[in-house]
Design a protein that fits this description.
It is a multi-pass membrane protein. By secondary structure, this protein is an alpha/beta fold. The protein has helices at about 5-10, 15-30, 35, 40-45, 60-80, 95-105, 135-145, 150-180, 190-210, 225-245, 255-265, 265-275, 285-290, 295-320, 340-370, 395-410, 415-445, 450-470, 480-510, 515-520, 545-550, 610-625, 700-715, 735-750, 755-760, and strands at about 380-385, 390-395, 525-535, 555-570, 580-585, 590-600, 630-635, 645, 655-660, 675-680, 690-695, 720-730, 765-775.
Length: about 775
């Protein structure tokens, strides 16, 4: 089940039909779990609006017609044939669309953007439309770039989609598991059913969330067989019901039955659309999980397996109901032959667990992306698989989701209200996708604005109709989706606002380069051996906290590195483009700026290997500066020198390599191709550090001296200097600003993961200095 990440996987997607079919098979378990279990509750929620069953079967035929055309127009036409093409370098989802817009127009919400970011190889993507940018497209682009309100509206729109995905992460496991075990009502008396159903559902949900920290890599290979077995099961039962009860049920595909249904049922029929909407829950996963598969594999799996199986399942249920007008409960299990109900129940529970697992993992991913974009507090991210990129686990979010999921399960105790809440979350995400896609068509694909209007009008009208049917059920459960999304939206807004204000304070109070030059090479203090890593969010200039260090500390390290770890609006940054390195001031100062860039789907691990890559990138920068510059970029800041793009150690085999060994294991060895610069002997060093420098081209004496100092400093050790800031609103600020900064942001900061924990710095080599920011 597990897929190898990286270049091999992306290349393998295009290699052969065998690889393609394998990816399509695996996508059934990962992508379509949620969508595949929708037959469990669609008819039950639709007919919960007291819609009668007449002898003419107009109601049954009308509902089936609506389900058929909804499945055909939204997942098949919209997602498979249109939205999947709007990938962001192979990645999908709401943030992928927002990222595309940020790169084609200057609407990014990230405060520390640089001109150098635009030079990344994945920053610009070939547009699907071959036509040049239209006149309307250029006017729309300039309008978005001029008005901050519109830029913030786009960010809010993307965050609304993200918050509704989180809400879906609470509601989908609840309704899926609850619906799967609802088959017990046919085997247990009504008096005992209510005492069995809820506890069993809660036990399954607790087990599901409790096992999250183990990851899915050990049992992931079972996902596709389980969902495929479920799809084959419901399609086989559907075929049986069609031929046994009503072979003419296919007539319901005629759109006229939709009109007859809505005309006859009127307001009740309109409200029942909230139940019909549930047949497309999970459709967004086709786009959101695009990064793990290829477009073609997802299309093949849906069109050849998932779509036909779902249509047969809904047809079979409708055929059964068309001959059983007087049954009290319109559920999935009543249409299952009695001798098959227990095996089907077991398969349904397993499929519900797989579908829930996919949405939970998706929730972890969306929160990680929000945190990368500075819109969510820092959280602990655990990697559950060493082979598959993106398999993560967030403990705090996992337990919050579990508590919320148990609360709605125990509180509602029926699929009707759970379905109302889940439907609203799903259709809101789809509306957000439709709005962003209309901008993608014009700004990124450079298509005629008429196509964008047609797209919004056609799909927006369908989704707005379903949205209106869902929002009208506010008091019948839909309020839960809004409440969950609202709470997370407030958290995201407060954190983003505080983060931006903190960055603006840093920019306004950064130290002048003239002040630094006036201190001289020693910076006015004693320079001791070692490397000092000063973490900062600034990409240019000297942070104000550095002057605080200089004036309060009697000594400082001989090599100082201003380290900025930032995320850019691309899904992945290639290892060879990871670092931007430059000098601050004259070379004699031994001050460096190192900007480490990650994509919003990249994972940053601050471990020993990262330290090694960091030191190696600085050494390669020193070498390349003496032998002729590599690719360099100019920043707009006045204080900034040229920055050199330097890759990780593994990406420049012909450049400097670093070797770190225990002193007892070091042997004097040379090579005809490389020469070694060794540090002088010291008394009982912890490590012996060596830079292996290529013989050609030659480096000058000053560069050798600089490399020697860097090597001695690395051998002495690395200290992490962190600024611990406390935010307070200025005097005279509005009450709302004081509430947001003094209480909201500070509460989140104190209760989120501290930077030292997030970066796994050893406590013995960490120095924190506190400062109060008045913003």
């Amino acid at each position: 089940m597990d897929l190898e990440p990286g270049v091999y996987q992306k290349h393998a997607k295009r290699e052969s039909w065998k690889t393609l079919l394998t990816l399509a098979y695996q996508s059934i378990g990962v992508v379509y779990g949620d969508l595949s279990i929708s037959p469990l509750y669609v008819y039950k929620n639709t007919f919960a609006e007291d819609i009668g069953h007449s002898e003419t079967n107009e109601e049954i035929y009308g509902v089936l017609s609506l389900v058929f055309w909804t499945l055909t127009l939204v997942p098949l036409l919209k997602y498979v044939f249109i939205v999947l093409r709007a990938d962001d370098n192979g990645e999908g989802g709401t943030f992928a669309l927002y990222s595309l817009l940020c790169r084609h127009a200057r609407v990014s919400s990230l405060p520390n953007c640089q001109v150098a970011d635009k030079e990344l190889s994945e920053y610009k993507k070939e547009s699907i439309g071959s036509a040049p940018e239209t006149g309307y497209g250029s006017r729309l682009k300039s309008t978005l770039e001029k008005h901050k309100v519109l830029q913030r509206f786009l960010l809010v729109l993307a965050l609304i989609g993200a918050c509704m995905v989180i809400g879906d992460g609470v509601l989908t496991p609840a309704i899926s598991v609850f619906s799967a075990i609802s088959g017990l009502e046919l085997s247990v008396s009504k008096e005992h059913h209510k005492y069995v159903e809820v506890p069993v559902a809660c036990i399954i949900l607790i087990g599901l969330f409790a096992l999250q920290h183990y990851g899915t890599h050990r049992i992931g290979f079972l996902f596709a067989p389980i969902v495929l077995t479920w799809l084959l099961c419901i399609s086989a039962i559907g075929i049986y019901n069609i031929f046994h009860w009503n072979p003419h049920i296919y007539q319901a595909f005629s759109p006229c039955y939709m009109y007859r249904f809505l005309r006859k049922t009127q307001s009740k029929g309109w409200m029942s659309l909230g139940g019909i909407l549930l047949c497309i829950t999970g459709s967004e996963a086709m786009f959101a999980d695009l990064g793990h598969f290829s477009q073609l594999s997802i299309k093949i799996a849906f069109t050849s397996v998932v779509y036909p199986a779902l249509i047969l399942a809904y047809m079979g249920q409708a055929a059964y109901l068309s001959k059983h007008h007087l049954i009290e409960t319109v559920g999935f299990y009543v249409s299952v032959p009695e001798n098959l109900r227990w095996p089907v129940l077991v398969i349904a529970v397993l499929a519900a667990v797989v579908g829930s697992q996919a949405i939970i993992t998706g929730t972890f991913s969306i929160i990680k992306q929000c945190s990368a974009l500075g819109c969510f507090p820092k959280v602990k991210i655990v990697h559950t698989s060493s082979k598959v990129h993106g398999r993560i686990y967030i403990p705090e979010i996992n337990w919050i989701l579990m508590l919320l999921c148990l609360a709605v399960t125990v509180g509602f105790r029926d699929t009707k209200r759970l379905g109302n809440a889940s439907g609203l979350a799903v259709i809101t995400v789809m509306l957000v996708t439709t709005c962003l896609m209309s901008l993608i068509i014009v700004l990124c694909w450079h298509q005629n604005v008429f196509l964008a209007i047609c797209f919004v009008f056609f799909f927006g009208t369908i989704e707005a109709l379903y949205f209106s049917a869902s929002i009208i059920k506010f008091h019948e459960g839909a309020w839960v989706a809004i409440a969950i999304a609202f709470i997370f939206m407030i958290i995201m807004f407060v954190w983003y606002y505080g983060t931006v204000k903190k960055y603006e304070f840093d920019v306004q109070n950064k130290v002048s380069i003239n002040w630094l030059l006036s201190l001289g090479p020693s910076l006015g203090i004693v320079r001791v051996r070692g490397i000092g890593l000063i973490h900062t969010d600034l990409v240019s200039g000297i942070p104000a906290i550095f002057s605080h260090f200089v004036t309060n500390l009697p000594a400082f390290h001989q090599v100082l590195v201003f380290l900025c770890i930032k995320y850019v609006p691309v899904p992945h940054v290639k290892p060879e483009e990871r670092f931007l390195v430059g000098h601050i001031g004259p070379k004699e100062f031994r001050l460096y700026r190192c900007i480490v860039r990650y994509g919003y789907r990249d994972i940053h691990k601050d471990d020993t290997e990262f330290e090694k890559d960091l030191v190696c990138s600085i050494a390669e920068f020193i070498r390349s500066g003496s032998t002729g510059p590599k690719e360099t970029v100019e920043d707009l800041g006045k204080d900034e020198d040229k920055m050199t793009v330097v890759g990780m150690c593994s990406t420049h085999a012909d450049g400097i390599q670093i070797s770190e060994d225990d002193v007892s294991n070091i042997e004097s060895a040379g090579t005809s191709e490389h020469r070694e610069i060794k540090s002088p002997p010291v008394i009982q060093p912890r490590k012996r550090v060596r830079f292996v420098v290529p013989e050609s081209p030659k480096i000058d004496a000053s560069a050798k001296e600089e490399l020697q100092e860097l090597m001695e400093a690395r051998e002495a050790g690395i200290a992490y200097i962190l600024g611990h800031s406390y935010m307070k609103a200025k005097r005279g600020s509005s009450m709302l600003k004081k509430l947001v900064i003094n209480y909201g942001y500070e509460f989140l900061r104190r209760n989120s993961r501290a930077e030292t924990y997030a970066f796994s710095h050893p406590h013995a080599s960490t120095l924190e200095v506190g400062m109060v920011y008045h913003v």
